[in-house]
Every structure is written in structure tokens, then in C-alpha cells.
């Protein structure tokens, strides 16, 4: 192979490498690709404006659920091991309701906190509430349903629960 041929080959390889690098950068800067990755992180997710979520106003639990009280309540404080009852509406970050107990006329949701009968983020998010309180809990996928899709819930979804605590024993 002549020197000219080797130089030409090196230039073509360099051009291919630069082209590939450019394609990767464009893909990384693509808003759709960026939004998809950001939608699993409550801190960077784009919430529908109808949800009125300013994530900087939320407290964070040990494992990463975000909570904000709109009404503190005045009754018993929820702690691990307590059996509680509540009303809830579950939404996705685009505002879509995926579940709500009041729509079907279902009885209040009752469970023992920390027993593992609800998703981890929901379990953690109710701790510290008082009866009569209202709270929004934002649950990232890692302490929600993870990558597993559920009825009406795509895999790796951030879940938003608006809850009203009715009792704690």
C-alpha cells in the first residue's frame, strides 16, 4: 500500500469516527431521547402543568419518594406498623389518572405501613402523616413498579399519588 493510499484510508477512518461521534452527540441532545431518560428522575421530570408540581417544595424520604403536605391534619401520626386507611388518586406525570379509589365507589384503601402490601414509595410516603392530612407523594420507578408495566402504567413511570388519610390505628 502506498503512502497516499494509507493517508487516504486514515482520513476516511477519521471521517467515519467523527461522523459516528457527531451522531452520538445529536442523539444525546435529542429532546425526545433526553426526556425519556429524564422522566424516570422526579428531580428532572417534566410534569404536566395541571399537576402544579414544584419538586423543590417537596421533602425526600430515605429511599427517594418525594412528599408534600397540603393539609397537615391533627390526628394520630402514621408510623411503621400502624394500620391506616386513606383515599387516593394515582397519576402519571402527564396528568393521566391510572387509578383512584373514589371513581369506583370502592371502600377506602387500608393497609399496614411497612408490611410490603403496597409499593415501597407509597409505604414510605405516608409515614409522618396525621389523620385528616392531605399529601402528594411522588414515587420514582425504583421504589414504584420499576420497569414492569402495569395496567395503565408504562414501565419506569414516575407515579404521583394525592392522598387523604382517614384513619391510623
Spell out the key features of this protein.
169 residues; 3 helices; alpha+beta; globular
Give the mean pLDDT.
Answer: 82
Give Rg in angstroms: 23 Å
Tally the helices: 3
State the end-to-end CA separation: 84 Å
Number of strand elements? 7
Number of domain units: 2
What CATH calls the topology of the largest domain is Chitinase A, domain 3
Given helix and strand content, the structural type is alpha+beta
How large a portion of the residues is in β-strands, by DSSP E?
15-25%
Helix content: 10-25%
* Poorly predicted ranges: 4-38
Second CATH tier, the architecture of the largest domain: Roll
Estimate the global geometry from the Cα principal axes: globular
Largest sheet: 7 strands, antiparallel
The top level CATH class name of the largest domain: Alpha Beta
Order of helices and strands: HHEEEEEHEE
Amino acid at each position: 500500500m502506498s503512502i497516499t493510499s494509507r493517508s487516504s484510508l486514515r482520513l476516511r477512518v477519521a471521517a467515519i469516527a467523527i461522523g459516528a461521534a457527531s451522531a452520538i452527540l445529536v442523539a444525546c441532545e435529542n429532546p425526545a431521547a433526553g426526556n425519556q431518560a429524564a422522566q424516570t428522575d422526579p428531580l428532572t421530570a417534566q410534569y404536566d402543568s395541571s399537576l402544579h408540581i414544584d419538586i423543590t417544595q417537596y421533602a425526600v424520604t430515605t429511599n427517594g419518594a418525594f412528599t408534600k403536605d397540603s393539609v397537615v391534619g391533627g390526628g394520630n401520626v402514621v408510623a411503621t406498623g400502624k394500620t391506616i386507611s386513606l383515599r387516593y388518586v394515582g397519576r402519571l406525570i402527564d396528568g393521566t389518572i391510572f387509578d383512584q379509589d373514589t371513581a369506583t365507589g370502592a371502600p377506602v384503601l387500608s393497609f399496614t405501613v411497612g408490611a410490603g402490601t403496597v409499593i415501597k414509595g407509597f409505604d414510605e410516603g405516608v409515614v409522618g402523616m396525621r389523620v385528616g392530612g392531605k399529601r402528594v407523594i411522588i414515587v420514582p420507578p425504583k421504589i414504584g413498579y420499576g420497569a414492569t408495566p402495569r395496567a395503565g402504567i408504562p414501565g419506569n413511570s414516575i407515579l404521583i399519588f394525592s392522598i387523604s388519610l382517614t384513619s391510623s390505628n
